[in-house]
Design a protein that fits this description.
This protein is mainly alpha-helical. Helices cover about 55% and strands about 0% of the residues. It contains seven helices and no strands. The longest helix is centred in the middle third of the chain and has 32 residues. The two termini are about 30 Å apart. The model has no long low-confidence stretch (mean pLDDT about 75).
Length: about 140
């Protein structure tokens, strides 16, 4: 889990380059290779979902018809949505309600001429307006 999470946000390699960066330490040398960890996590997740669906659908003979498979597939998708959406809505609530109070400094709280704040670029403004798009998982459709 640490392998996947630690690879998500390190793009400025000047902060990590030896001799004084984090890559100078032995335990931090795995971070540049973590991109493969994220890809392998997605592959394993896909296989696990397919295996779970196969066990639910093909375990019984009556589920092998096209109509029963369609019903089980929709049920599987809905149950997956129900598992994911509470965590996503909790994170969005944190971004909208807590994130504006976490930053410090002149630039973080500075009001721009158009009335927005600098922390709006972190997502607080858009999340409070378009929360329903994330609820339906449509955020990548432009």
């Amino acid at each position: 889990f640490f392998y996947v999470v630690s690879s998500a946000g390190y793009s400025n390699m000047e902060q990590f380059s030896p001799p004084h960066g984090l890559l100078g330490s032995f335990w931090f040398q795995i971070v540049p290779g973590c991109f493969y960890g994220v890809d392998s996590f997605f592959v394993m997740s896909g296989f696990l979902c397919a295996y779970g669906l196969q066990n639910k659908v093909f375990h019984r003979q009556e589920n092998r018809t096209p109509a029963a498979f369609s019903a089980k597939y929709l049920q599987f998708g809905f149950m997956r949505w129900l598992r994911l959406i509470p965590a996503q809505m909790f994170c969005m609530a944190l971004v909208v309600n807590v994130l504006p109070f976490l930053g410090t400094g002149i630039l973080w709280n500075m009001e721009k001429p158009d009335g927005h704040h600098c922390y709006d670029a972190a997502g607080a403004g858009k999340c409070s307006q378009y929360w329903w798009v994330n609820l339906l998982f449509l955020q990548d459709l432009d």
